[in-house]
Amino acid sequence: MASITLDTVGKIYPGGTRAVGDVSIDIADGEFIVLVGPSGCGKSTLLRMIAGLESISEGTVRIGDRVVNDVEPADRDIAMVFQNYALYPHMSVRDNLAYGLKNRRTPRAEIDRRVAEAAVILQIGPYLDRKPRALSGGQRQRVAMGRAIVREPAAFLFDEPLSNLDAKLRVTMRLEIKELQRRLRTTSIYVTHDQLEAMTLADRLVVLNAGRIEQIGTPLEVYRKPASTFVAGFIGSPAMNLISRRAVPHLPVAAQAGTIGIRPEDLSVAPDGPIEMEVLAVEELGAQRLVHGQTGGERLTVAMPSDAPLSDRLRLSYRLGSLHLFHPETGRRID
Amino acid sequence: MIENRPGLTLLAHLVLMAGVAIVALPVWVAFVASTHTATDFMSGTIPVWPGPHLVENYARMLDAGVSTSGTPPVGTMMLNSLVMALLIACGKIAISITSAFAIVYFRFPLRQLAFWCIFITLMLPVEVRIVPTFQVVADLGLLNSYAGLSIPLIASATATFLFRQVFLTIPDELTEAARIDGAGPMKFFRDILLPLSRTNIAALFVILFIYGWNQYLWPLLITTSSDYYTVVAGIKRMADAVDGLPQWHLVMATAMLAMLPPVAVVIGMQRLFVKGLVETEK
Ligand SMILES: Nc1ncnc2c1ncn2[C@@H]1O[C@H](COP(=O)(O)OP(=O)(O)O)[C@@H](O)[C@H]1O
Ligand SMILES: [Mg+2]
User: Fold this and answer.
1) pLDDT by residue (tens digit) across B66-106?
2) Which ligand lies nearest the alpha carbon of A37?
3) What was the pLDDT predicted at B171?
4) Do A84 and A211 belong together in one domain?
5) Cβ atoms within 10 Å of B282's Cβ, excluding its own
6) CB A88 to CB B177 under 8 A?
7) What CA–CA distance (Å, rounded) separates B192 from B184?
8) DSSP letter, residue A332
9) Which residue of A41, A250, B204, B212 has the smallest Cβ count within 10 Å?
10) What is the mean pLDDT of residues B165-179?
11) How does the average pLDDT of chain A come out, rounded?
12) How many Å lie between the centroid of ligand 1 and the Cα of residue B44?
């Protein structure tokens, strides 16, 4: 177990593409960090630099007290879980788990003990002698995690490990990963593009955009106080409404605000509300209903109870203190 | 494409049977010829059914051979062919799998150049470079030796390409997982690449064994001692009887015998062979 420190880390691919820039994060021992951002924002690149699979162009990566910039992946004391599992197809599950330990010349008895232990934790005991191709997606996922666990590494690195599973399994596996990490207390860095997965798993979230950090914080901090319009639009589902101040000129907000953010669930129908919306479409979700419309030429979404009255034009009010204000040019939050 | 019309099924069967007949007929004629005496075959009408001399003809060939044509017993020639075919098949596989490994997994200077050099050898089969190759082999004193029979045929661009394609289908993540698991390049090659290419190696072995076994021009050229005659080249020597008619029944018996090892290899490795050609999942 160890802390991980990134200091102004950057990556420029051969050919000149800058994938990551100026990333500094202090990850505490035992912490569960989620790197989240849209596809192509550099999450995998950052993770792979920590793993040692990608060279580090700028800055330093420290695992524990050791700068690992020039250390081979096998010697960084990390374990990685890949999106496509990357199990060795010709080896049994048992050998898949044991392979890394064998290469480190771990004694036979110790290997058997750790494999048996991981098999119990992940409930893969019955499949230990099967080949990966004879396993379902969820079982392969567990084996991939097992391969990480038996190493007893200083840190787990996950690169979108649940993306290849169906929606239902994703939810249960998500919970299992969380519980597992709670139990093992191993520092973990988890990459995903799914903001819901990020919110539920993370001790702290790192929101990335175009290779740069937009915000670091606990899920609630990020949700309640998004640092920029990008974070505001990315975290939370349905996404926060971001409307130009000009669309709602009569709202009482600070003069320097350019963009106003309101979460759909902070809006409600009120006969004397300050915002008038023309309804364009309605989505029924069962427990609630999403009403999409426009006001002053800007799109607006409202989440309301499914029994609330509907009409072509609605007057809306917002919960007090629920407005998020952003700078017109930089898009940064104004408090 | 799955069609379920009886008419088409019948047609398909007819086409297949015609194909089998075209392939099998010469083999059948050779087999029939090998079971008769020399005179039966020279009488003008070719017999259609096997005669009574099967055991006698084959025993004679295996045991003594045809002394008039200067060829050793078929057994010796088959052994020579076997050694040559195995050396060629194994040598080609060993060289091409390691060079494909180097080309795919290592970023060394002049990698592209190495790749193209291998590529260019595609245009230089033995037949094209036969005179200089003969010179080199002769200068090295390799005439009439197994090394001389096999080494000039071992370099192989096609097999290198095949393995390159196989390696390219192996996901990068697998390589990376192995790296994190502490497998160095050689360990990766032995523990991951070799087992994953098993079926391809088998398929290639079958093809290369037959290629080696069927070599004709090269062995004919560089073997002057009958100790090193191969069976395919030997058949030619037998058919060239200097004084008198070729003893076709014995030539055909040799041809039948010469067919057996490739058939055995194909049948023995059929399952792996087919898997190697069709398997895509890695
Ligand atoms: N090997 C590479 N060479 C050049 N550019 C790359 C390479 N890998 C990724 N990139 C680029 O770097 C950026 C970030 O990629 P990646 O880290 O895979 O994003 P994410 O995992 O967040 O989807 C992308 O714009 C991608 O095109
Ligand atoms: Mg990625």
Assistant:
1) 655 667 778 888 888 999 999 999 999 999 999 999 999 98
2) 1
3) 92
4) yes
5) 13
6) yes
7) 11
8) B
9) A250
10) 92
11) 92
12) 77
pLDDT of residue A130: 92
Say yes or no: CB of residue A13 within 6 Å of ligand 1.
Answer: yes
Query: Domain ends where: A229, A260, A290?
Result: A229
- Would the CB atoms of B173 and A99 count as touching at under 8 Å? no
Is residue A141 located within the same domain as residue A73?
A: yes
Tell whether A207 and A260 lie within a shared domain: no
Largest Cα separation within chain A, whole Å, is 75
Cβ atoms of B214 and B84 within 8 Å: the answer is: no
Based on the fold, state whether residues A135 and A173 are members of the same structural domain.
Answer: yes
The string of DSSP letters for A208-226 reads: EETTEEEEEE-HHHHHHS-
Q: Which ranges of chain A have pLDDT less than 70?
A: none
Query: pLDDT tens-digit profile of A30-81?
Result: 999 999 999 999 999 999 999 999 999 999 999 999 999 999 999 999 999 9
For residues A134 and A27, membership in a common domain is answered with: yes
- The whole-number pLDDT of residue B282 equals 47
> Considering CB atoms only, which of B174, B179, B191 is closest to A73?
B179
Higher-confidence residue: A200 or B153? A200
* Atom in ligand 1 nearest the alpha carbon of residue A38: 22
Q: Which of A9, A20, A36, A44 to mutate to test the pocket of ligand 1 (most atoms within 8 A of CB)?
A: A44
Calculate how close chain B gets to A104, using CA atoms only, in Å. Answer: 7
CB atoms under 10 Å from CB of A144, counted, come to 25
- What local confidence, expressed as pLDDT, does residue B56 receive? 73
ipTM value > 0.90:
no
**Distance of CA A158 from the midpoint of ligand 1 (Å):** 16
Distance between CA atoms of residues A300 and A293, nearest Å: 5
Q: Is the CB of A45 under 6 A from ligand 1?
A: yes
Give residue B217's pLDDT.
85
- The answer to whether A100 faces chain B, any CB pair under 8 Å, is yes
Ligand 1 centroid–CA A41 distance in Å is 7
Task: Select from A183, A201, A229 the last residue of a domain.
Answer: A229
Neighbours of B228 (CB within 10 A): 22
* Beta carbons of A302 and A267 less than 8 angstroms apart: yes
Are A142 and A11 members of one domain?
yes
Q: Cα separation of B214 and B258, whole Å?
A: 9
How are beta strands A259-262 and A58-63 bridged, if at all? unpaired
The secondary element (H helix, E strand) that includes residue A4 is: strand A4-12
Where residue A15 falls (left for φ over 0; alpha for ψ -120 to 50; beta otherwise) is left
A-B contacts at Cβ under 8 angstroms: 58
Domain that holds residue A147: 4-229
Name every residue in B having a CB less than 8 A away from some CB of A.
171, 173-174, 176-183, 187, 191-192, 195-196, 198, 281-282
Q: What is the pTM of this model?
A: 0.84
Q: Which residues of B touch A80 (CB under 8 A)?
A: 176-177, 180
Q: How many structural domains does chain A have? A: 2
pLDDT for the residue B203: 86
Average pLDDT over residues B259-265: 88
Q: Burial, B1: exposed, middle or buried (Cβ in 10 Å; 0-12, 13-18, 19+)?
A: exposed
Cβ within 8 Å, pair A84-B173: yes
Q: Based on the domain organization, do A173 and A33 belong to the same domain?
A: yes
